[in-house]
Amino acid sequence: MKEPPLSLEDRLTAIAYQFVNLYERWSEDRQVAAKHSAEIADLVNRLTVQVSRLEGLAPEVEESLKKSVFQAAQSVTQSMAQPLRQEVIQQTKIFASNLDRLLHSAQEALLKTSVQSFRWQLQMLGLSLVCCLMISFFFIKFWMPRPHLPLMEDQVRKLANGYLLETIWPHMTEGEKTRFEHLVDMARKNGETPL
After folding, report:
1. What is the biggest distance separating any 2 CA atoms in the chain, rounded to whole angstroms?
2. pLDDT 10s digits, 117-142
3. Which of 5, 43, 126, 176 is the Cys-Cys partner for 172 at CB 3.0 to 4.6 Å?
4. Cα(22)–Cα(96) distance, integer angstroms
C-alpha cells in the first residue's frame, strides 16, 4: 500500500534530524581526532623524555629522532584528517541533495496550491456574478412596479363609457343594438368620436 506523501513540515523536520545526526557524527569524529591528538601529544612527550635521557647520544642521532617523531606525528595526523574530511564532505553533499529535493517539492506544492487557489477564486467570482444577475432579475421581475402611462381626461371618459357599454350591451334588444350602431356610424361620418 502506497504511503501518503509527506507534508512540507514533515520533510523539513526529517532534514533537520539528518542535519543534527550529521553534526553529532562530526562531533564524535572530532572527539576521536582530539583523543588521537592527545595520545600523539602524550607519545611525543614520552619520546621527548626518552630523548632527554639519551642526551649523551650524538647530536646527529638526536636530530634524526626528532625528524622521525615529527614525520610520524604528521603522517598520523594526515591519515586521520583525510577520512574525516571525506566523511564530512560526503555527508554535506547528501544533506545538500536532500535539501535541494525538499526545496523542489516545496516549489511544486506551492505552485499546485496557487493554481488550486486561483481556480477556487475564479469559481467564486463566477458564482457571485450568477447570483447577482439572478437576484437582479427576480427583484426587477417581482418587486419593481410596472410603468403606467398617465391617461388624459378624454381617454378616461372613453374607457368609462366603454365599460358601461360592455355591461349593458348583453341586456339590449336587437332593435336598440341596431339603432346604437347606426348612431355610431353617423357620428364617425360627421368626424365626431363616438362615446
Report:
1. 172
2. 889 999 999 999 999 899 888 888 88
3. 176
4. 12
